[in-house]
């Protein structure tokens, strides 16, 4: 072999290694998919993070899970595509740019749409790649040549096509309806972008006088400012308290408007007084009642959350200031009856982080029912898509049934501008609720259509609003592959294989993708939906910006390495869909769990260095597969364990048991390979004997295969070790075949036998430690078992027991002779292990040492017992303190018992 044998450095440096291979993978386009490649395919399109974002622990967790699946299928021979991309994040970008403009004393309206969009694109070019670079740093094996952005031309074409097709099919309409309005972002938001929060508020009770002077009715509300827009009072028609009032009218305080009392079964007789004020323009339930009873709709609010001219003397006031002033005025006028403390749910804008206002507004909507019904049909007839865990199927189904029409227009500039052109020449060059419009793919087409209908002199203006970002995200699985064109990517990789996503966006995103895909492609967009849980903080709490308890994954990457963090996040998953907790010290930015994974990486590194040093320049290829005729017992055992792990890892990954797969590999590598097999073959490697080569073959073969098994979980360190082990220069482990099972080499009985041998060796080692026998001293050991099968196992492995237990003389027997000398003894199942101590240790000195230790512990037991026998302590001390003393006492008593047993053995 060559004199310059490649070897691993003494210490593993994750920073250098990870950067090296991330660069090499991208330079050599290792993950570039080939749409001309025949055979089975595996495709994941990653959930597109916001272009404004930076990596948080949720991204890191999700990307690790995805990448395990992607790397595994690529190595398993699938034509694999992991397609990355980012979302334009309308509201988030607006928030950033509006803040910048505010610092300059300007608003977006001061600079105009064109300049604002220039700024947005400039910001995207300068800062939009942050999260992409961070995803690369996590080792995501995506085809970066296919990276997409929701505002790139291809996806924009898909959005326009989808809008036009839905409109022409009668599934998109424009109308004046009550929407969720976010005063912070000055835009409508969908029902799914509204989060209910429990808040401490008040319930105000007011008196509305009957117009005929015969008395008054008492109403209760949590939003007293909206009474300025009341156009009715409702009671339940079955409520006997109020039946005689139905048909009468009241005079609205402050405003003086006469409004009717009517009956409607929507009213809950148990809420408040059972008599409710009705504001059709500012409450969803009131909106329904207003339509049923032909009430006027009076909007009292501007889009920025201030009150408008319909609010009279309160016009121009912020909604919460107006609330205080309206209550004060009602109290002054004698209409306030009482105020109650009241905890209730308030809808908040998920984007703007402020309470939303139900507001009458002319918006664009998608008719959901035809789309959701088609998605339901796929689910009920084909169980498509399949949810993992299965329990999320019902949640998804229930939401499809409950979905209302989707408001898709947003009063923003950054995004997909709605492809509708208003014929403003028909309404005095102004867009009104009644201005006719043309929906078309582009302005030229819109103009041609408008001229045919309205004449040559028409004047058009495009709708200023943009589409909800979830509209373009709903097309993501197929628009990213080239739809509406029937591209090679679309033909090869659609429908995609697996969607990996959190349960919190099943409704935001998953349902929209299935509805859109069902309608436009007549297929579900993915076969499986793997729902993962949350990464919780060190106290088990959900991470959030408001709680300021997030953990920056890049801090842990810098400290411990990407592979260590990846492995920790995956290994902690106890089952598909389960939340995980991450140990973290905020004072030091340290994590015990990630440190443990780094230690695992170091263990693998050191084991690999040992193996390569003992291969003497040979590689797995030059050594060849282990010679089955020459295998020793421990070689057969290791190969059996290896193939068991191959089998179990494949099964776990294919059933989304990724945490179980990671833990199984850890146990095999750390325990079976490093702690046992390497120790068992050391003596063979260091002697010039025939069995040395088969030991080298087995080590090289299993290390090579184990690196491949582990690669999807810890890609960087495995690539580095594998490259050095194989001495290759033109191949990557990422493109090697994933190991397959050889059932003929799995031997469960042999594995059971070795488990017994290892327990025996462990017991001998523990007895040596108990007796303070120096490491270099060899001992005699007697192993007794009445079970013939056990004795055969011990005899077959006696060389291993002698080697690892440092045993000079080993006796295996069915019956013990009466011992005349002092021994130390232990038990392994039904096997007794004894070490004669004469001539090995100074028994008198050992007895003295143990007696001194026992005396100290007995004193501790006495002191602790005294505390617990003292009623003053037990009754007055905090329960946790008392329990701590009890636990300490129990531990001390156990230690004393062990010491007494050890002393007894020495007598």
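Q: What amino acid sequence fits the structure above?
A:
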């Amino acid at each position: 072999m060559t004199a310059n044998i490649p070897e691993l450095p003494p210490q593993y440096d994750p920073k250098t290694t990870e950067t090296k291979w991330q660069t090499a993978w991208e330079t050599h386009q290792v993950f570039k998919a080939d749409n001309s490649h025949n055979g089975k395919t595996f495709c994941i399109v990653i959930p597109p993070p916001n272009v404004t974002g930076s990596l948080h622990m949720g991204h890191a967790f999700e990307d690790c899970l995805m990448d395990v699946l992607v790397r595994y299928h690529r190595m398993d021979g699938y034509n694999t595509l992991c397609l990355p991309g980012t979302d334009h994040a309308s509201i988030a970008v607006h928030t950033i740019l509006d803040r910048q403009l505010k610092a300059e004393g300007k608003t977006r309206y001061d600079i105009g749409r064109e300049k604002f969009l220039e700024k947005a694109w400039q910001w995207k070019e300068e800062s939009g790649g942050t999260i992409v670079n961070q995803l690369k740093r996590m080792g995501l094996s995506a085809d970066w040549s296919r990276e997409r952005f929701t505002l790139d031309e291809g996806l924009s074409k898909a959005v326009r096509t989808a809008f036009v097709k839905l409109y022409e099919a009668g599934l998109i309409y424009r109308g004046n309806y009550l929407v969720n309005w976010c005063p912070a972002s000055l835009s409508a938001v969908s029902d799914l972008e509204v989060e209910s929060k429990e808040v401490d508020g008040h319930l105000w009770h007011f008196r509305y006088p009957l117009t005929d002077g015969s008395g008054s009715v008492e109403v209760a509300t949590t939003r007293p400012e909206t009474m300025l827009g009341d156009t009715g009072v409702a009671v339940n028609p079955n409520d006997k308290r109020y039946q005689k009032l139905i048909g009468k009218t009241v005079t609205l305080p402050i405003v003086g408007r006469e409004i009717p009392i009517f009956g409607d079964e929507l009213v809950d007789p148990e809420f408040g007084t059972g008599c409710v004020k009705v504001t059709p323009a500012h409450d969803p339930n009131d909106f329904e009642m207003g339509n049923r009873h032909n009430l006027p709709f009076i909007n009292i609010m501007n889009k920025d959350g201030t009150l408008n001219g319909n609010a009279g003397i309160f016009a121009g006031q912020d909604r919460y200031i107006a609330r205080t002033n309206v209550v004060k005025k009602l109290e002054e006028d004698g209409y306030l009856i009482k105020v109650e403390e009241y905890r209730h749910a308030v809808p908040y804008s998920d984007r703007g982080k402020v309470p939303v206002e139900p507001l009458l507004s002319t918006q664009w909507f998608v008719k959901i029912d035809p789309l959701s019904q088609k998605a339901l049909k796929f689910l009920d007839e084909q169980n498509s898509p399949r949810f993992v865990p299965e329990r999320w199927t019902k949640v998804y189904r229930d939401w499809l049934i409950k979905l209302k029409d989707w408001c898709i227009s947003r009063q923003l500039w950054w995004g997909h501008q709605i492809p509708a052109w208003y014929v403003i020449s028909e309404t005095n060059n102004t867009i009104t609720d009644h201005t006719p419009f043309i929906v078309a793919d582009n302005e030229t087409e819109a103009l041609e259509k408008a001229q045919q209908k309205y004449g040559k002199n028409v004047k058009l203006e495009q709708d200023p609003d943009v589409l909800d970002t979830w509209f373009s995200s709903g097309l993501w699985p197929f628009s990213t592959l080239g739809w509406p064109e029937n591209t090679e990517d679309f033909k090869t990789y659609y429908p995609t294989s697996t969607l990996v996503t959190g349960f919190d966006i099943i409704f935001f995103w998953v349902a929209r993708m299935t509805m859109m895909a069902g309608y436009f492609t007549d297929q579900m967009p993915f076969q499986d939906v793997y729902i993962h849980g949350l990464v919780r903080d060190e106290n088990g709490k959900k991470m959030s910006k408001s709680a300021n308890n997030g953990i920056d994954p890049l801090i842990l990457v810098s400290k411990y390495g990407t592979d260590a963090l990846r492995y920790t996040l995956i290994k902690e998953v106890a089952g598909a869909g389960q939340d995980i907790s991450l140990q973290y010290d905020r004072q030091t930015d340290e994590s015990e769990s990630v440190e443990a994974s780094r230690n695992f990486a170091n263990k693998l590194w050191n084991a690999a260095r040992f193996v390569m040093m003992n291969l003497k320049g040979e590689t797995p290829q030059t050594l060849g597969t282990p010679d089955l005729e020459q295998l020793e017992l421990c070689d057969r055992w290791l190969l059996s364990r290896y193939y068991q792990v191959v089998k179990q890892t494949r099964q776990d990954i294919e059933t989304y048991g990724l945490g179980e797969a990671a833990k199984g590999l850890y146990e095999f590598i750390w325990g079976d390979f490093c702690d046992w097999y390497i120790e068992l073959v050391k003596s063979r490697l260091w002697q010039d004997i025939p069995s040395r080569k088969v030991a080298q073959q087995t080590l090289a073969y299993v290390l090579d295969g184990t690196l491949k098994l582990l690669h999807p979980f810890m890609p960087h360190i495995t690539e580095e070790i594998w490259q050095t082990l194989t001495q290759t220069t033109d191949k990557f482990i990422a493109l090697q075949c994933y190991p397959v099972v050889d059932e003929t080499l799995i031997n469960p009985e042999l594995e059971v036998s070795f488990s017994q041998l290892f327990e025996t060796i462990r017991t001998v080692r523990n007895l040596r430690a108990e007796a303070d026998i120096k490491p270099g001293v060899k001992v005699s050991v007697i192993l007794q078992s009445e079970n013939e099968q056990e004795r055969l196992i011990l005899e077959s492995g006696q060389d291993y027991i002698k080697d690892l237990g440092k045993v000079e003389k080993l006796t295996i027997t069915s019956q013990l002779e009466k011992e005349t000398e002092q021994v130390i003894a232990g038990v392994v199942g039904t096997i007794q292990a004894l070490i004669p101590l004469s001539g090995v240790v100074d028994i008198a000195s050992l007895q003295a040492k143990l007696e001194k230790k026992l005396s100290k512990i007995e004193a501790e037991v006495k002191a602790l017992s005294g505390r617990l026998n003292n009623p003053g302590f037990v009754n007055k001390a905090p329960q946790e303190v008392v329990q701590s003393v009890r636990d300490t006492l129990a531990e001390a008593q156990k230690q004393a018992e062990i010491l007494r047993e050890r002393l007894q053995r020495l007598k």
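Q: And what stands out in the fold?
A: The chain has a mean pLDDT of 92.
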